[in-house]
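Predict structure. Chain length: 309.
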Amino acid sequence: MKRFFILLSIIALAFANSYAQNAAELKKIQKQAAKALVNAKKIVKNSPKMTSEADSVAYTFGIAQSNGLRDYLIQMGVDTAYIDQFVQGVMDRAALKKEDKAQFAYIQGIQIGAQIEQMTSGFANDFFGAGSRSTIDPSIVASGVMRGMLGTSEMNPTDAVTQFRTKLNEKHQKDMEQAYGENKAKGEEFLAENKFKEGVNETPTGLQYKILEQGDGPIPTASQKVKVNYEGRLIDGTVFDSSYNRGEPAVFAVNQVIAGWTEALCLMPVGSKWELYIPQNLAYGERNAGSIPPYSTLIFTVELLSIEQ
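Prediction complete.
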């Protein structure tokens, strides 16, 4: 029991010391912030020299723009303990004349650097996915920008655009394969078995179809419009779309639907009813189309009612 109380005493002492240290650190920060605020007010102690009505209105305009600025600075990560540096920077930039070429160039570099930081954050979201905690050092991007501008980079900017897009697409494809590869594999397995079933035909593109009813009307071309009734299903039987359920046939151009539909319609005489088995690459591919997951093999029952004029 005595050891237990000794342990509690040690824990309590450690907590007290930690609290004291935190309190001291907080007091130091508050003191620094207060000093910075005093210095900031000294920088703009006097009202600006105004010699016209326009100057007076402009000054009022400036005051109006200050509403919410302090909250914005906190949101942007500006430490209020350095508010004087922020105020000095604003005033220096506002007073800067283009004749001061060295300082003007430096300020422009600071502004471009801020834009690069934002660009890097957006790129990281695209590369790692929204919500990821992974980050990229903005100085890496800045180095690429500067070396590309100065002609000292390993490739020219035009080639870099191509390579960047290729690498980003490869990364996207890899991520999609990892996330939905199982769905893609199930579709391929389904089609591999389905093509040997009675009545199923397969075209060179991989489209499979079974004739349920063969019409004797004309066959539409890709540029024509058709009226159809249809039902669309996933390979697990889930219905994701149906003109039958809506109680109204659909009318659309043959060349304005997924590739599997276009190919099938250009083979179907009016009056036909077919069942289509469409590989993912002839459907929506890697796209997430509403209730249709990426890389989904689709099954459609299609009735070609007429060719529209």
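Summary: The chain has a mean pLDDT of 87.
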